[in-house]
Structures are given as C-alpha cells and as structure tokens.
Design a protein that fits this description.
317 residues, 4-stranded antiparallel sheet, disordered N terminus, disordered C terminus
C-alpha cells in the first residue's frame, strides 16, 4: 500500500531570509517558469494517445523496462502538479502518457504517476545530508523555503487520455549516477487526504536525459556550484541504452539559444496494468547509485507528508 505515513503535521522547513528578497544563486524568474509551462495550463486539451503510444499502424510499443527504485524513495508523496516548492533550477515541464502495452496502447485512465528526483546540487528531500559526491554547497545554503521532507516529489492522476503533467526543475546529479528522474506507475488505488492510497505498483523506472543537454545545463547556475565529473548515459549503472523504452525522454527547448529558459520533456510509459513491480531490491542496475557517504536508511524522515496535510502543503491538481 502507498501513502502509509501517519505523522500529524507537516513540518515546514527553516525559512531563510535572503538579502533584498532575492532567491538563491541561479534562481529563475517567475516569467521563466511561465514560459516553460505555457502549454501545461489547466484546460488544455490533450491529443490522442496514439501519437505517443503507438505507431501509425496502431501497433503498440515495447513494454517499459522496470529498474530499481533506488535508495531515495519515500512513501506518501502529495498529489500535485508543481513539485518545485521554490527550488532553483532550469524549468522542466514534464508530460507523461500511461498506456496499456498489452491492449494496443490504450490509455490507462486514472493511473497514478509518482515522480521524485534530486535538486540542482544532487540532494533529495528526506535525505538532505547525504553526500552527492564531488563538491557541492550544503543543501541548506540554497536559499529556498522548500520543505526538506517533500520537495521535488509528487503524484498526478492520469486523465482520460492517460496523460499527466508535472512542473519541476531539471534535476542535478549525484556520484556515480547520470541525470535522472525516478518514476512509479500505480493503479487500483485512490486519492485520499492529499496523497494516493492503496492499489499496486505496476511499473518502477527512471527517466533519462540526453547527455548533450544535461552537460549544457550543468554549466549554468545553480548547477555549476556542484563540481565533479558527469556520468554519461553509456557509463550509467542503470540506463541500458534502450532509448524510450528504457526511459529516455524526448526534450524540446523553450528557447533554443537560451537553455536557462527551460525544457519540455515527454514520454509514453507502456505498462502492463496486471503486473506488479515495486522496484524495491530489484535488478536492472544494481542499487541505483548509493552516494559515497550518508547513505539513506529507507526510513521516512520526521515531517513527511501525512493524511492530514495542511492546505498550504497539500494537493493541487
């Protein structure tokens, strides 16, 4: 079952006052996010799934390759579209389409898609003292007021076309992993008290980024403040070179001449709704890249999401 936390409150993170009211170094203007997310506003009609999930002849794509959930999973994420919580970085508008690989890539309406990833310096919420490798500022120096237990984590529920959308930032990286986003697809449960309860996990995977794009992003603020070598897709311990069926995103720059304006990422997730794969202890890439020190225990931190989440931190569709 998902959403098992029972803490009575969500503890808001330390509120850091930044001189002059500015955000952390490399923080992006609100206009930048609006530009990147311009076509993800509520009310936009999604096109049919066939353009993402099947060929022109109607044949369905190969089933997605499941891999380990990695060391940073936390149960009980919030149902919400915008998962940034003020974290600085290059905007990323993510559009994922869940389709049934066993039934001609028909949309899986009501599937719950859960994602989580690190911030620009390689830190995950819930594990903010885990060393990301190389040299990076402490996570507490980023200047945001994000909740240390919830930032860059969330669910969305698929619409009639199997589509979910997230507003986030381009993830950083930690040693020895390439840039990636974790993803789980759940079915059979329901939204309850701001999170997703019950059902089963059908697919556990990771989303990946073209090396050229990632390496260019990492030259920008605030990413550039995390030094160290970059692990390419070919050298990553999880990505198996399978392209889209292995989680490689299709990326489109908002402005080709200025990567800081953001990217739009899309991918169809072809799953088997009858299968179950939690990713816990699974193969497909070992342990998912445990950092050099400060390895997480897998236990949720205090202040993690609860069923009685306050309105300020609870679900937004």
């Amino acid at each position: 079952m998902t959403g098992t936390h029972r803490n009575s409150t969500i503890t808001r993170r330390r509120a850091l006052v930044v001189t002059g009211g500015t955000v952390a170094a490399g923080g992006l203007a609100v206009a930048g996010y609006r530009s990147a997310f311009a076509d993800t506003a509520d009310g936009v009609t999604d096109t049919t799934t066939n353009t993402n999930g099947a060929t022109a002849t109607g044949a369905c794509m190969t089933l997605m390759s499941s891999v380990t959930e990695g060391p940073y999973y936390l149960d009980g994420a919030l149902v919400r579209k915008d998962i940034t919580e003020g974290k600085s970085g290059v905007p990323l508008a993510l559009r994922l389409t869940v389709v049934d690989a066993t039934d001609g890539c028909t949309p899986v309406k009501g599937a719950a898609v859960e994602i989580w990833h690190c911030d620009a310096w390689g830190y995950y919420s819930g594990y903010t003292t885990a060393n990301p490798g190389g040299s990076a500022p402490a996570e507490s120096e980023d200047g945001s007021t994000a909740n240390d237990a919830t930032y860059l984590r969330g669910y969305q529920i698929a619409n009639a076309n199997g589509v979910v959308r997230f507003e986030t930032i381009f993830p950083g990286r930690y040693t020895p992993r390439t840039c990636h986003i974790h993803v789980k697809v759940h079915t059979g449960g329901e939204k309850e008290d701001g999170t997703y309860e019950g059902g089963k996990v059908n697919y556990t995977g990771q989303l990946f980024f073209d090396d050229t794009v990632a390496e260019e992003i990492f030259t920008l603020e605030p990413y550039s403040r995390h030094s160290g070598s970059y692990t390419t897709l070919d050298d990553d311990m999880v990505y198996d070179g399978g392209g889209a069926t292995s989680g490689l995103l299709t990326l489109k720059a908002v402005h080709k001449a200025d990567p800081s304006k953001g990217y739009k990422g899309s991918l169809a997730l072809a799953i088997d709704p009858d299968a179950e794969n939690t990713g816990a202890g699974s193969g497909g890439g070992g342990e998912g890249g445990t950092p050099p020190s400060g390895a997480p225990t897998g236990e949720p931190p205090s202040g993690a999401p609860s069923e009685s989440a306050s309105p300020s931190a609870s679900a937004s569709s």
